Amino acid sequence: MTKIDARKIAYKVLYDIILEEGYSNITLNKYFKQNSLDEQDRRFISEIVYGTIKNKIYLEYIIKHYSKGRIKPKVKIILLMGIYQLLFMDKTPNFAIINESVKLAKDVAGNITGKFVNGILRNIERSFNKDNLKYRTSDEQFIIEKSCPKELFDILVKQYGKEKAKSIVLSFNTKSENSIRYNPPKISKDELLKLLGDNARKSYICEDNLILTKQNLDNEYFKKGYYIVQDEASSLVACSITEDEKKNYKILDTCAAPGGKSIHIAAKYFNSTLISCDKYIHKLKLIDENIKKLGVKNIITLEQDATVSNENFEDNFDIVICDVPCSGMGVIKNKPEIKYKITDKYIEDIAKFQYKILEISKNYVKNDGILMYSTCTIDKRENIENIKKFLMKNKNFKLEKIALKNSIIKATMYGVLEILPDEYDCDGFFIAKLRKVEEKC
Question: Predominant location of this chain (predicted)?
């Protein structure tokens, strides 16, 4: 595939993400499936897409410096990706980047637009100097250059202080390591390590994960279901349960999609049975496909809305998993578009939604059973504040300290896991383990 074709796919992906509010990973996978692409083209497209989204505010600020008029959204996308390539990608000569951007602009919006794009990009190539960009304050300079929306920055400063907030923002523009989780029904961790050779090493964060030097989903071992792509922090949910893995438990996952945690727990607790729930049929089908591919036999899927109480579930499960929907503030490294959607009101609303699920799910836990609560966010309202509120109201639940095996991650003073994205090369995450006890009269 020529690079102009690859750039055209990158443009279409960015169009869907920026103008249609698509998710980067889902949108990229959709276009990768639709087009015959080699690994080099996939990496090239991914770099343009993720780099442009991660640096969008900064790139828009540069455009304003060089063009005072209103620019049509689809033309702005071409400029954003063109400027990103000029400033951040050095493997392609500048003249080629500009020429191909102009061709793309002509193809998308006509010859006049092509001339406009040519003028802007050539002017930037000749005269751009970041020191010439003007800012009112040092904070404004930081959030623009690091492409962090002001409301998100303010939230982080309020909860973590300015120095830590800046460290977290810097981590958003990095990338997590290539993490995979081995699949026990088909292979042992040591056997997989041997097969993958120098491309893999053990994770220091999660004992069930490996870190790859290079990720390649055309790998025969991935296709055979020997492993699944899963972030180290996400894999810690199963490892945080820390019950006897040989026993027979009834386990419920109330918000299972996309299913990685459900399948991991079922594989880890191989003598148990697990019901994996979601309210969307199409998501359950994806879970079923992975169950079949990975050969996990002790799990079934069920259509069930976590916000609607199910009487048949009451007092019926030894372990209940509440991996609730969240703002996603912990996964911005890998889904950078999320940072542009976060507002205070959105977080307040979703924290209430999470708490509703937690209150419903508590009824499904047997006495002496476990209720696991997890999110892929670092906003305290969605995490520890929800847990404190729950414990104040539900005296028959106690917080248990999570003690992981073979991990550098340690529990906080509350006994929960609070993984911040600037401290580790993985997603930000929160996990709490609650034990249901006999309520004293």
Answer: cytoplasm
Q: How confident is the model at residue 37 (pLDDT cuts 50, 70, 90)?
A: confident
The answer as to whether 441 is a domain residue is: no
Six-digit token string for 359:
């209150």
| Amino acid in position 236 | L
> What are the catalytic residues?
376
Strand blocks (E) in 148-196: 178-182
Could you list the residues known to form a binding site, using ranges: 255-261, 278, 305, 323
Both 263 and 189 in a single domain?
A: no
pLDDT digits 0-9 by tens, 146-205:
999 999 999 999 999 999 999 999 999 998 899 999 999 999 999 999 999 999 999 999
CATH of residue 83: 1.10.940.10
Note down the domain range covering 275: 241-436
Which residue ranges are tagged as binding site for S-adenosyl-L-methionine? 255-261, 278, 305, 323
Q: Are residues 324 and 217 in the same domain?
A: no
Does residue 100 share a domain with residue 51? yes
Cβ neighbours, 10 Å, residue 313: 21
Give Cα 427 distance to the centre of its chain: 7
The count of domains in the chain is 4
- Residue pair 262/287 in contact by the 8 Å Cβ criterion: yes
CB half-sphere exposure, 136, CA atoms < 13 A: 1
- Say whether pTM exceeds 0.90: yes
Mean pLDDT score, 343-366: 98
Burial class (CB in 10 A: 0-12, 13-18, 19+), 31: middle
Mean pLDDT, to the nearest integer, of 299-322?
97
pLDDT digit string, tens, across residues 116-150: 999 999 999 999 998 889 999 999 999 999 999 99
